[in-house]
Amino acid sequence: MSRRSLLLAVLASFAVGTTAVVAAPAVSTSASDNLPAVQESHFAVIDEIAMWDARTPVSRIGAIEGDPVAGTIEIGWAGPVPTEVRAIAANAANQGIDITFVPQEASEAELIELAHDLAASMPVEGAFAIGIGADSLSVEVPTPEAADAAGTEAIELEGEVLTVLDETEQAAAELGATVTVEQTDSVPSTTASRPIAEGQPLDAAATALYSGRSNDTSVLSGGMRVQTQFPSGSWVGCTSGFSGFYGHRPLIVTAAHCSDYLDGRAVRNSAGTRIGTSDLVAELNDGARPYDLGVIAADYDVRTLPRIYTSETATVDITGTQLAFPPAGYQLCSAGQITGWKCNLTAGAAYVTCYAHVRGAECMNVQLVHSSAGNAFCQGDSGGPVVSRPTSDGAIAVGVVSGLRSPLNGTCSTQGLIAPMSQLMATVPGLQLHTNP
């Protein structure tokens, strides 16, 4: 499913009509001391423009980058910018948001489609990634040494691989885009923790070193330490993302790889008590456009609360969900059982990343983030919530932790990958996050 189709599905699930307007909060957008509220106003305007584009026959929106401190947004656009979109920008200017439209030859939807086609055509099962830029694709292939160290199949830049890359370069040129190929010293990897063998006792002394809520069973929220049982019987540690419901079924959002990309896997809290079962992974990960998203379906009598844990007891309310893909340049926060709660993240470019797997590489559309200090994510943070900088009311759900990108620091990295929440909301109509607006 393309990003335009995703947004159309979001519109349908939220019953947004063609004349709907997403109202941005009236705040002073040049005050750095009011950054959380400024970012919320920017997100609202970006959502409005992205949803307008989604209602058109052909998506024309390109790469988006913002500077909330300066109060500016740069939006790539393929072709003439429609009058209606310029009107949205003019209205944003009245709130102190300066929007500039940057000409692009190809829309981001076209480039992501091309990246997915390339990923599906690679005749290997190894891990690699494709960065999505303005009129550019950057293919990042691990060196043979890096692939061998990670225990994955090496991608040799020869033969059929070169043929596929040549065909992608020709297709990109028809869109007015370029393709570059670079060998890297690391392999993109998921952020699930190392398996705990079946029957292995939980070490209370060791688990106390981790962050996040540990033993909830009947009242569930995001930011919990959870473990999912793989087909081998081992348990893999992750972090819960956001609470929600599907029909009358309470659930917790997490990453698809936390259940080995499978439904029906048992999930327990870090104290060893079962809290639910992996579900909706097939809908979100097995389609034409796989996403690193799934849910933990809880029992019907379980309660969920519209919040995420930032420690064993402290929480932040969730006030809404970002409907468009996260734009670059904005500051984000995350909670993970290894790295804890931090607001050191800045959103970057869109990626199609292919994680190595015994059943074949799993390729998904994700977003790059990088930390300003310390690690972005570590193994064990998978599925954890990624949100906007909180205001006094709370924070907006942006995505969940998906993976690591080079340079790696053991099992951690200063650069991470997230699965955007917009993919979940659009792919499973009727699923709603539990929010406290």
Give a structural overview.
- The protein is α+β, with helices and mostly antiparallel strands.
- It has helices spanning 3-13, 35-54, 83-93, 108-121, 144-150, 160-175, 204-207, 281-285, 421-427, and strands at residues 61-67, 72-78, 98-104, 128-133, 136-142, 178-184, 189-190, 219-222, 225-229, 235-239, 243-246, 249-254, 266-269, 274-279, 294-297, 303-309, 315-321, 331-336, 340-355, 362-371, 377-378, 385-388, 395-409, 412-420, 431-433.
- The strands form three sheets. Strands 10-9-13-14-15-12-11-25 form an eight-stranded antiparallel β-sheet. Strands 18-19-20-24-23-22 form a six-stranded antiparallel β-barrel. A three-stranded mixed β-sheet has the order 1-2-3, covered by helices on one side.
- The protein contains nine helices and 25 strands.
- Helices cover 22% and strands 37% of the residues.
- The chain is globular, with a radius of gyration of 21 Å.
- The longest helix has 20 residues, at 35-54.
Short summary:
The protein contains nine helices and 25 strands. It is an alpha+beta fold. The model is unreliable at 1-30 and 202-208 (pLDDT under 50).
**Rounded radius of gyration (Å):** 21 Å
Number of strands: 25
Strand content: 35-45%
User: Which parts are unreliable, with pLDDT below 50 for 5 consecutive residues or more?
Assistant: 1-30, 202-208
Q: Which whole number gives the mean pLDDT?
A: 88
Number of helices: 9
Task: Give the distance, in angstroms, between the N- and C-terminal Cα atoms.
Answer: 29 Å
